[in-house]
Every structure is written in structure tokens, then in C-alpha cells.
């Protein structure tokens, strides 16, 4: 029997990076959390403590800050691509790189009825995410881009059912044809290809369109289960966006239990609930095209986000 080193990668996780554009009176802001990982010939560092091929994680972090100035940040997908390509193209032992970025949104403060030039209020609806994987050098190089969001908290106060489910001797859940459906949604969509000349506007347009499609499906579908809601969300996104190969969802079912008010002589036809934080159902699904391009390492997590 031999003991061998398995898969390995290394990088700097969660560099908090704020880029202000201040060349005009009306400033712009991008507020990011950047994680980078290198993959490649790094076994010697593990096996023998040989750092000669190890570009320090500190350098990876510095590169992210330097690129925020020199290349700028027009979209997190584009920024991730630029950084990941740089690492693979300029670091000899790196055969792959993974860059994961979260973006925290700000909206302009309104002062005397006017949007302020340089004061913002955190816009906390959801966190936008991007995960870029670059594999191989030169002509062989491929790039995978996964856009997405996390923490999009949605609730509908009717239009959701859960009934006719399988039961056994441990089942106590009552069937319902009218319940609250709530989730804190994670969605990640993989682009079929990563066109180097795509402008920020394309990444941004796709982002707002996908989010709107997801919200619309959540609102308008008479949901028989969260599983069905996810399927319809994914199908609608793929129908509308030929540039997306597949989409993954992770959806906690944030249960809202009707409180029994009978002891107090009150009826409760779905008006007062306990919002339980745990345990929660966790429904996860991928909706894909049957001819989707090869995902390579697109979904393999890097140093930062799972
Ligand atoms: O939408 C749901 N899907 C389930 O699989 C499930 N299981 C459960 O107890 N409640 C629900 N709700």
C-alpha cells in the first residue's frame, strides 16, 4: 500500500476589496469579496516543504488589488476572468486557476429628493456571485464562468401546496393546499462559453434578467412543491437564455407553521405563523440542456465559497 497526495489547490480566501471610481464628481463603487486558488504542480510544497514553485497567497491577494486599479471592475464575471487568466498565463507551475467573487450592492442615498454623488446605503437584497475557472495554457486554455446569487429571500403568502406525499408510520405532516412558501435562494448558472470580448453590460443584463425570471416563476406558479418551483425557474431561465448551459439551485424550505390559537378561542386560517429557522428542508436541483457543453472544473469549489 502506498500513501499518495490527492487533489490539492491553494490560494487566498475572501480578500475584501472596495473599488471607488472617483474621476468624476459622481463616484461609482464596487464592493467585493475575492477568493483565488491555483491548481497545478504544487506537490513538492506538500511532500517536501519546497516552496520554489509556490506563488504566495499574499501575492495572489496583491494581484487582485492591483488589477482592481489597473484593469478595473466592470463586472465580477469579467474581473474573475481577467485575474484567473493572468494567474495561469504568468505563473509557470499553475495549470489552472479558480477565482470566486461575491459582490455586495450599494444604492445611492437620496438627499433632498436627489441621488447623492458619493453616499450609499447598502442594498441588501441578495449577494451576486461569480466563479471563474481557467484550465490549461495557451491554445488549449478553456475558461468556465458561473454567475449567480445567494441569499435572495423570497416568500409567497399563498399559491403553494404540499399534499399527496408518500407516508409511512413516522409521517405526521398534514397535507396542505394553501401554505406559506419561503426560501433563501442560491442560484448559479454556467455560461456555455466565456467570450473574451463580452462587455460588462452582457454579464449585468443576463444577471438582472435571470433574477427577474426566477422571481416571476416563484410568484406566478401555483407551486405543488418547492421541487416543482425550482424546475420551472430553471426551465424558464434556459428557455430565455441560450448562452446559459445549466443552472443549479439550493433552496432551504423556510417553514412557516400555523400557530394553534384554539386554546385562546381564536381561529387561525393561515394568519399567524411560527417562522422556524431550523431544521429546514433543503431542496437542490440542477436544470440543464441535454447537449450542454462540458462543465470541466466549473463546479469544483475553490478557496472561498462552497
Ligand atoms: O416543497 C416541499 N418539498 C418537500 O419535499 C417537503 N417535505 C416536507 O416535509 N415539506 C415539503 N415541502
From TrEMBL:
Stored Pfam families: Uricase
Origin superkingdom: Bacteria
GO molecular function, one term: urate oxidase activity
Annotated 5-hydroxyisourate binding sites: 57, 162, 179, 227, 253
EC number: 1.7.3.3
Catalytic activity line of the entry: urate + O2 + H2O = 5-hydroxyisourate + H2O2
UniProt keyword Oxidoreductase present: yes
Positions bound to urate: 57-58, 162, 179, 227, 253
Keyword match Oxidoreductase: yes
Sorted UniProt keywords: Oxidoreductase, Purine metabolism
Family of the protein in this entry: Belongs to the uricase family.
Name of the protein: Uricase
Organism: Marisediminicola antarctica
Organism placement in taxonomy: Bacteria, Bacillati, Actinomycetota, Actinomycetes, Micrococcales
Amino acid at each position: 500500500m502506498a500513501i499518495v497526495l490527492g487533489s490539492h489547490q491553494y490560494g487566498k480566501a475572501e480578500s475584501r476589496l472596495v473599488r471607488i471610481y472617483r474621476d468624476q464628481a459622481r463616484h461609482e463603487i464596487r464592493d467585493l469579496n475575492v477568493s483565488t486558488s491555483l491548481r497545478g504542480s504544487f506537490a513538492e510544497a506538500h511532500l517536501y516543504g519546497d516552496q520554489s514553485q509556490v506563488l504566495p497567497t499574499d501575492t495572489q491577494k496583491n494581484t487582485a488589488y492591483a488589477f482592481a486599479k489597473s484593469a478595473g471592475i466592470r463586472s465580477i464575471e469579467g474581473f474573475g476572468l481577467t485575474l484567473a487568466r493572468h494567474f495561469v498565463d504568468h505563473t509557470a507551475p499553475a495549470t489552472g486557476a479558480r477565482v470566486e467573487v461575491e459582490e455586495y450592492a450599494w444604492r445611492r442615498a437620496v438627499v433632498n429628493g436627489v441621488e447623492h454623488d458619493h453616499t450609499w446605503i447598502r442594498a441588501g437584497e441578495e449577494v451576486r456571485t461569480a466563479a471563474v475557472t481557467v484550465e490549461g495554457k495557451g491554445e488549449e486554455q478553456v475558461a468556465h464562468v458561473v454567475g449567480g446569487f445567494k441569499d435572495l429571500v423570497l416568500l409567497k403568502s399563498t399559491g403553494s401546496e404540499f399534499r399527496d406525499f408518500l407516508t409511512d408510520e413516522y409521517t405526521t405532516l398534514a397535507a396542505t393546499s394553501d401554505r406559506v412558501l419561503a426560501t433563501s435562494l442560491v442560484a448559479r448558472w454556467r455560461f456555455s462559453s466565456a467570450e473574451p470580448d463580452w462587455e460588462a453590460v452582457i454579464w449585468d443584463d443576463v444577471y438582472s434578467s435571470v433574477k427577474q425570471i426566477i422571481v416571476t416563476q416563484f410568484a406566478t406558479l401555483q407551486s405543488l412543491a418547492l421541487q416543482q418551483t425550482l424546475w420551472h425557474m430553471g426551465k424558464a431561465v434556459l428557455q430565455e437564455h441560450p448562452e446559459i448551459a445549466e443552472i443549479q439551485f439550493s433552496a432551504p424550505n423556510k417553514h412557516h407553521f400555523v400557530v394553534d390559537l384554539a386554546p385562546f378561542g381564536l381561529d387561525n386560517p393561515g394568519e399567524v405563523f411560527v417562522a422556524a429557522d431550523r431544521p429546514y428542508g433543503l431542496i437542490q436541483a440542477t436544470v440543464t440542456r441535454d447537449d450542454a457543453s462540458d462543465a470541466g472544473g466549473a463546479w469544483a469549489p475553490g478557496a472561498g465559497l462552497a
